[in-house]
Amino acid sequence: MTVDWATIGRRAGLCLVVIICGLVLRGFGYRVGLPFVVVKYGGSVLWGTALFLFVAICASRQPLRNVAWISIAIAICVELSRLVHTPWLDAFRLTLPGALLLGRIFSPCNMPAYGLGIALGAALAKWRDRRV
Fold first, then answer.
1. Is 15 within 8 Å of 53 (Cβ atoms)?
2. Measured between alpha carbons, how far is 107 from 3 in angstroms, rounded to an integer?
3. pLDDT per residue over 13-32, tens digit each?
4. Where in the sequence is the domain holding 72, given as residue range(s)?
């Protein structure tokens, strides 16, 4: 089975757009007066979407259903990892990359937002893959 570079490229482009949207939302959302819930959970939805697209790039030969299950497992593990506290992990979480990748505070309310983002990522990938 050969690698479909066009599909990988489309998914990478979508992932980049989603990451930029998430950074803009988290960086400027409060400044433009968006409500807390929109910035907080909108960012979590976009994080789930970016995660799905990243997994879809890495596992490009897998069906989108499998990519979704892998993404859900990763999202749950990342959220649960916030319950683990070691000096080096807490120090990493205080950095911008650590906060963006792992987050800082455990919140079970994030998991439905991640699920919604993963579903959005699957819909975007399916839509974009079919448009070619």
1. yes
2. 38
3. 999 999 999 999 999 999 99
4. 5-130
